[in-house]
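[INFO] parsing input record for HesB/IscA family protein
[DEBUG] input buffer:
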Amino acid sequence: MAARPRPKVMTLTDRAADRVRAIIARSDTPILGLRVGVKTGGCAGMEYIMDYAAEASPTDEVVEDKGVTVLIDPKAILYLLGTEMDFVTEKMSQRFVFNNPNQTSACGCGESVAITPAVPETYVSAV
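[DEBUG] output buffer:
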């Protein structure tokens, strides 16, 4: 029996993929992709982090979506499982946002979130 393919840890909307590709194209140095993760911080407990990645670490979860390579630290996988990254334009700002089914709350300033790790068996059986 063939194994069922694993779901992607996270996906990007077309807007987010377009914006990441545009940023990477303007870089003066080679960029493999975008490194995404979470860290402890802020008043709600956790913060999303993003950075450019010149190379992948052997332990990174590599997600290819809409022509963008996203590298995820293995410690962040259960926090990001099922997340969709979007790019929104509002009257006075543009920013990336994370639509995360594991997020349980956010602080009032929008800088940090509370995230409950996903239960992999539950997520896989629901897909």
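[INFO] Residues 1 and 125 are 17 Å apart (CA to CA).
[INFO] shutting down worker
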